[in-house]
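I keep forgetting this: the sequence line spells out the residues, with the fold written below as integer tokens. I include a record here:
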Amino acid sequence: MSEVAPLPGHEAQELQRAFDVFNQVSQALTQAYQGLQRRVESLTAELAVANGELRRQYEEKEALSERLSLLLDALPAGVVVLDSAACVSEANPAACEMFGAAIIGKSWPAVLEASLVATEAPGEWHFDARRLAIVESPLDSAGGRILLIHDVTAAHGLKAELERHQRLVAMGEMAATLAHQLRTPLATALLYSANLGQADLSDSARIRFASKTTAQLQRLERLIQEVLLFARGESIGCDTMSAEELLGDAAQTVQPLFLEKQVAFRVICSAARVIVTGSRKALAGALVNLLENALQACTVGGQVTLWASECGRQLRIGVRDTGSGIAPEVQLRVFDPFFTTRAQGTGLGLAIALGVVRAHGGTLSVSSVLGEGSDFVIFLPIETAAAQLH
């Protein structure tokens, strides 16, 4: 049997070094594998925790979605979701009950035109015998919208009833004042009419007494009309008018009064084409009340200005006079029913004007400086609910 010849010394050393390097690499690979294995175990544990958290969040969102769905189903208000094309994509049962389940997929503007009629109040609509309030909010960046629809029929009826009771309470509290105001012109008219029965009365005196009697009766008639108007409240219509037409109606009515008292009167309208919706008669009547009030505050040579301008989405209408002004303590009560500083006043003109403006969704304010005159300013909305929803 032949023997293996031993390797030369330098070859043995090279082989030994190779084995040492192999052992080192093997140990490094083993350590790297162990580290990788530990990292895999750590990541697996982290993934398990993350999966558990995601599962928990999913379950919570699922429960929240279910609760929201139940809430929408139980909500008495209608909820309608519109896509970017203004078509109904979703509707809760209350909305389906109002408009029918077939509303889904329809164009909302078409539903508005076919089923709803705009009221005098922005954002409120007549639907059959009901009155609906519609509030719109953006839903997403894609142009979707969500509509919340409330049936405010009962609330509107209660509001009207409350306003009526408030007017009746105010009338009851001021009954004594009203009785005195009625008694004065009535007694004067009776006195003048009694003189008409004198046999030796001249024709000129008879004409004078008859004229004075008529004037007192007319004063009495106007007082009764104002009381009835305040007690009943003004019904608000759906007339469409420009600011120029509205100011023109009021100016035409009061022009002879200003000529008679020799007070300058001018109209400045920088919002002639602005359109408002409501009762043309009631709004013009409110302006006439303000103009008559301003006229009574002026003396011969004074001036009253009726002006209008556009401010954002509101129409401003003002009545400015150069009269004696209103004391600060009187300004606090100037709109109170039956409050007046004039012996011949009823105290209802400004109260009626304020009621008309509020019924149209507007406001009425006063600013005045003693000795420098007063400025009554009306703010009326000029953007209709239809414009907001389309």
